[in-house]
Design brief:
Layout: E1 4-7, E2 10-13, H1 27-45, H2 49-56, H3 63-79, H4 91-111, H5 116-145, H6 149-168
Antiparallel strand pairs: 1-2
Helix pairs in contact: 1-4, 1-5, 1-6, 2-3, 2-6, 4-5, 5-6
């Protein structure tokens, strides 16, 4: 494939002709898609965390919505450690994570004044990756390292919360 170069707000394939433009191919739209993917990955790890991060990083979010999303995210973090919690890769939880990843990606793109559909797609795909990666991590690492699953789950929580707030914070530098 030909090399791609970017000048101002247009992307060109080698030879100087304009290439396909998804979301305008501006730096802002590329950043929005990266952040939407990251929020999707977080939805695969902890499904409510991206919505809570979006709520808490927006000045226009009503306090009640901030509190509800935080309550749901903390409840999920606690519930994840319980033995009765179903596997994230069962069809119901998996589809829910994809839906929440897509919603998070779309909401982020709306905030950044970018088209919603590409953000939703990237958020949904990120959720697939995050779900499978998180399930693999939790099934392999405790056995391989001898660490209790609880400790591995806490590490996963930290990654999810950190990544969510880094992606949702408006002035995050890449």
């Amino acid at each position: 494939m030909s090399a791609i170069r970017t000048d101002k707000d247009k992307t060109y394939l080698a030879g100087g002709r304009p290439g396909l433009r998804l979301m305008g191919d501006t730096v802002e739209s590329a950043d929005a898609l990266k952040k939407a993917s990251r929020l999707g990955i977080v939805a695969g790890l902890r499904s409510m965390t991206p919505l809570a991060a979006l709520a808490w990083t927006s000045e226009s979010t009503p306090p009640v919505l901030r509190n509800v999303t935080a309550f749901l995210a903390v409840g999920e973090i606690i519930g994840d450690k319980l033995p009765l919690t179903p596997s994230r890769i069962k069809s119901g939880p998996f589809m829910g994570r994809i839906a929440l990843g897509a919603l998070s990606g779309a909401l982020l793109c709306k905030r950044l004044q970018q088209p919603l559909l590409p953000g939703a797609i990237r958020g949904g795909l990120g959720a697939v990756i995050g779900t499978l990666a998180g399930a693999t991590y939790r099934s392999i690492v405790p056995e391989a390292t001898g660490l209790p699953d609880f400790i591995c789950a806490l590490a996963e929580d930290g990654v999810a919360v950190s990544l969510a707030f880094a992606a949702a914070t408006p002035d995050t530098q890449e």
